TrEMBL record:
Gene3D superfamilies cross-referenced by the UniProt entry: 3.40.50.2300
Record carries keyword Transcription regulation: yes
Segments forming domain Response regulatory: 6-122
Single GO biological process annotation from the record: phosphorelay signal transduction system
Keyword terms of this UniProt record: DNA-binding, Phosphoprotein, Transcription, Transcription regulation
Protein name (Swiss-Prot/TrEMBL): Response regulator transcription factor
One function term, GO molecular function aspect: DNA binding
Amino acid sequence: MAEALRILLVDDHPVVRRGLRAMFDDRPDMTVVAEAADGQAALDVLAGTEVDIVLMDLQMPTGMDGVTATRRITADGGPPVLVLTTYDSDADILTAVEAGATGYMLKDAPPEELCQAVWLAASGQTALAPGVAARLLGHLRRPQPALSPREVEILQLLAQGLSNRALSKALFISEATVKTHLVHIYDKLGVDNRTAAITTALQRGIIRPR
């Protein structure tokens, strides 16, 4: 029999990691070789452990987030990263894909579907949850100009109530640059103020509710 697929679980919730470990370790073709509670811990594990596939959560508030960790892992030529999260907004999906994630699955996926995605991602193939694939296709087919990652980031911060000054400090850019970004965002969304921009972005799934 072929050697079992070596999995690294990265999630800040111990209960989630425990459930995933039990599911994978119950299979003869998969084994969890390590766990990590945040992105930095995952990088530390990879420095000394042979891993075939990383299952990466996105939101880990107490440490390095999943997107940053994914970007670091892929930049260093590490194993494929399969994002496993509860979020399916355009912002999350596009950011993860741009960071180098090989696949994107949701935590409520059926076990067999998730295991198949793990094998696909480990072999370098793209593995997307059906809803995620539909969102990506919809994003590509939309006639309106696509928002850049920076514009999506600004929209997400706008939804948190940040002022132009707060935005400039958070992103280390000038207020004039923030205003320029806002003009482009309004134009692309077909709106003329920040409230309408936030509402439209939420309705289209570009950003997620806070």
